[in-house]
Write a structure and sequence with these properties.
This protein has about 110 residues and is α/β, with parallel strands linked by helices. It is built from 4 helices and 5 strands, in the order E-E-H-E-H-E-H-E-H. The chain is globular and about 35 Å long. The model has no long low-confidence stretch (mean pLDDT about 95).
Length: about 110
């Protein structure tokens, strides 16, 4: 994992595997957000496997796909809501972390 901070409580990284979730919990994160649509890439674990591993590690897991038919502005509004309701640091992931950082910027611009 190559984790990059966007803010104090919001960090981004590339694709996580179910086996990574224990380390994510040990690092102090409260939740993970998957922004990668299922089936986007070869060998990519399905969100259900990520969610199951997150629950086993005592983490909240959210599926907020960006790409394909997802409308980024709608997803930015949803991200803004998740940021408000989640206590503790969040680790968002996609293929590289770039769309997670971009969606965060969109969510911040929405305001409210």
């Amino acid at each position: 994992m190559h984790i990059r901070p966007v803010t104090h409580n919001y960090h981004v990284t590339g694709q996580l595997k179910p086996a990574d979730l224990g380390k994510v919990a040990e690092a102090g994160y409260a939740a993970v957000i998957c922004m990668r649509p299922d089936g986007e890439g070869w060998g990519q674990p399905k969100f259900q496997a990520i969610e199951d591993a997150a629950k086993a590690a005592n983490l909240k897991a959210y599926y907020l796909p960006v790409g394909g038919s997802a409308v980024p502005m709608e997803q930015a509004r949803k991200l803004r809501g998740l940021l408000k309701e989640t206590e503790g640091p969040i680790l968002a992931f996609c293929a590289s972390g770039a769309r997670c950082a971009g969606l965060y910027q969109m969510a911040e611009q929405i305001g409210g």
